[in-house]
């Protein structure tokens, strides 16, 4: 007998065996129809309930395949406006926040200080605190962008030199610094 017919018979037999196995598996996984009980064991239909009291609606059933989501409670809006700190109070709280490793508060205070006291002698320190706070929060890309801006705006200050040393951001010497 030649090899080609042997292979054909083997493949045909293999396909038939696989088809039978798949059919058995499929029939085993299908739910079996419930056998109906004999006529004498069948339940008689129950009498309808009077419609005098409406049944309360059922609460929705949660889908077990969808994980529950937690929604934080909405914050109540404060009616009182927070007191704006003057520059010395702001700087004191900013330095304390940096010392206690509260970098989110430090960032917020430094940003607020830069917006309100842009021309202050403490502005370079506030800008340096913005860079430090971002870096310590792990926001390296944002810290680097702030550092580039800071060292150009406050070039020559001790705070700009410190930021240069830690970030590698250097001022662009061929540009005229902003006034």
Structural account:
This protein is mainly alpha-helical and 179 residues long. The chain has a domain at 87-167: Serine Threonine Protein Phosphatase 5, Tetratricopeptide repeat (Alpha Horseshoe). It is built from 6 helices and no strands. The protein has helices at residues 3-29, 87-99, 103-116, 123-136, 140-153, 158-167. The longest helix has 27 residues, at 3-29. The chain is elongated and about 95 Å long. It starts with a helix and ends in a 12-residue tail after the last helix. 17% of the residues are buried. The mean pLDDT is 74.
Low-confidence spans: pLDDT under 50, at least 5 residues? none
Measured distance between first and last alpha carbons: 99 Å
**Structural class per helix/strand content?**
mainly alpha
Strand count, sense and barrel status of the largest sheet are: none
Radius of gyration: 38 Å
CATH class designation of the domain at 87-167:
Mainly Alpha
CATH topology title of the domain at 87-167: Serine Threonine Protein Phosphatase 5, Tetratricopeptide repeat
The strand count comes to: 0
On the 0-100 scale, what is the average pLDDT? Answer: 74
Please state the second-level CATH architecture of the domain at 87-167: Alpha Horseshoe
The helix content is 40-55%
CATH superfamily of the domain at 87-167: Tetratricopeptide repeat domain
Report the portion of residues in β strands. under 5%
Tertiary shape: elongated
């Amino acid at each position: 007998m030649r090899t080609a017919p042997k292979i054909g018979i083997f493949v045909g037999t293999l396909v038939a065996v696989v088809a039978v196995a798949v059919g058995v598996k499929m029939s085993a996984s299908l739910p079996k129809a419930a056998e109906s009980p004999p006529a004498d064991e069948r339940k008689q239909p129950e009498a309808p309930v009077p419609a005098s009291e409406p049944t309360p609606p059922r609460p929705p059933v949660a889908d077990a395949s969808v994980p529950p989501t937690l929604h934080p409670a909405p914050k109540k809006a404060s009616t009182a406006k927070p007191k704006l700190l003057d520059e010395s109070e702001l700087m004191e709280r900013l330095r304390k926040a940096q010392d206690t490793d509260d970098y989110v508060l430090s960032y917020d205070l430094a940003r607020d200080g830069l917006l309100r006291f842009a021309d202050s002698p403490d502005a370079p320190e506030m800008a340096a605190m913005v860079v430090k706070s971002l870096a310590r929060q792990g926001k390296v890309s944002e810290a680097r962008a702030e550092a580039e801006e800071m060292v150009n705006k406050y070039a020559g200050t001790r705070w700009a030199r410190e930021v240069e040393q830690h970030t590698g951001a250097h001022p662009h010497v061929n540009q005229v610094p902003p006034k």
